[in-house]
Amino acid sequence: MQAAHLHRQSTIPGAAAGALRAVEHLLFRGAEERARRNAWSAVLEDRKRAKDRRDAQHVMDALVSSRAAHGDVL
């Protein structure tokens, strides 16, 4: 009888933990998807900034080359 009582007590925390995990899963499922979307948006923004930097560098290089070809001093 005492073993059955101990077994019943030990399963209650396990059941509560399982219920808590199920509730957390339902609550945070959307948060995980949102986090992935946010991370992907950050990647796309980083790529855009890198492209803008490259484009600006090309313009600066072309201006320097043009001025140097014409003998202008910077």
Explain what you see.
The chain has 74 residues and is mainly α. It is built from one helix and no strands. It is rod-shaped. The mean pLDDT is 83.
Compose a concise summary of this entry.
The protein has 74 residues and is mostly helical. The chain contains one helix and no strands.
Quick tags:
mainly alpha, 74 residues
Distance between the termini: 94 Å
Number of β-strand runs? 0
Low-confidence stretches: none
Roughly what percent helix?
over 70%
Give the SSE map:
Layout: H1 2-69
